[in-house]
Write the structure tokens for this entry.
Amino acid sequence: MTYSCPVNSAISAARIRCCGCCAAWSAKKRLVRLGYGVYGRAVVSRLSGEPLLYSPNGFLGAARQALTKLGVMWEPTEAERAYNEGRSTQVPVNPVVRVRAASHGG
């Protein structure tokens, strides 16, 4: 299984072998490490100068993208589905992902 390089993706699962760019980009504050072998694109904070995760869909979007790239099966919570289907007016505010299977393709 081949994973894409973080230079061309918002989230990269570089668990197999990285081309070496992860460490270089991380040192330049262009990547943040989200977990073992999982990196996300970063922007530098104007306040602290530290790298922050950049994701157009927020942390939840980044987490879902990382799980998908790692081959972990997940699904939205019942509260999120109810809201999206119009069965509820209550907006889910906590970032939650329901993992469907314990195994992953790695």
User: Anything to note?
Assistant: The longest strand covers residues 38-44. The longest helix spans residues 58-69. Helices lie at 21-27, 58-69, 78-84. Strands lie at 11-13, 31-35, 38-44, 51-53, 74-75, 98-99.
